[in-house]
Amino acid sequence: MRPTRRHAVALLAAAALPLTLAACGSDDDSDTTASTSAASGSTTAAAACDKANLKLVNDGQLTVATDRPAYPPYFEDDDPANGRGFESAVAYAIARRLGFAQDEVKWVIEPFNSSYAPGPKRFDFDVNQISITPQRERAVDFSSPYYTAPQAVVALKDADAARATGLADLKEAQLGVQIGTTSLDAATASIAPSKQPKVFNDSNDVVRALKQGQVDAVVVDLPTAFFLTAAQVEEAKIVGQFEAPGGDSWGALLQRGSELTACVSRAVDELRGDGTLKRLEQRWMGAAAGAPELK
Fold first, then answer.
1. Which of 31, 154, 159, 267 has an alpha carbon within 20 to 30 A of 17's alpha carbon?
2. Domain that holds residue 220
């Protein structure tokens, strides 16, 4: 017999009660299961990153690579093993997170251009101001970024712009930038100069313009600023650095598919979370290195 509408409602109400109770129980079970699974996954990840479980190029030894010569402020005295300089300090901080003492870390030389070439690696990871790019990620692994390069202002030491202590002091300066870089957007957004920055075709033209006084100052990323003032225009100085979107991010480079990648990324994330990376950056890449912050 076909049920009446009243019978149907009653039947649906009766059926809904146990389903509702079951659903409540299911949610609790689901939450508990999810929490248990998350905890289990975290424990498993931690165990996989225990020193004894790491798959290394050389057993019991962490092999870290960089290029030679190794320049400041990333490495001091061309000696990566001394722990001095930003990237040397970062590498040892990662090593400590992985359970290695300083004397258990061995440094090897790896030319910059060959570091991100496809194929087997003779190191566990490489730190060498290597930008993370989609093209490189097709050939190698990268850890989480340990550094994102800010922009910097460089001027001749005797120029008015060299005495700037804040971004507002550079508003009337004639700035120079290289085409195709993030520096133009950074200069326009952060400095808001009264004059349109001069745009040059390549880095050589930027350097030439600075040397010849065609511009009061140039805007480049901070790593370029260190190289420019150390090797190209010794009569110039870094006026300061400032945060801007679009900066290159550097990561520790590993062999493609390395079982160590997740553990190095985890170490970097922890170093960022507890403020270690920021402290190392301020010490080695900040005012002490001749690159005060401009606000």
1. 31
2. 151-242
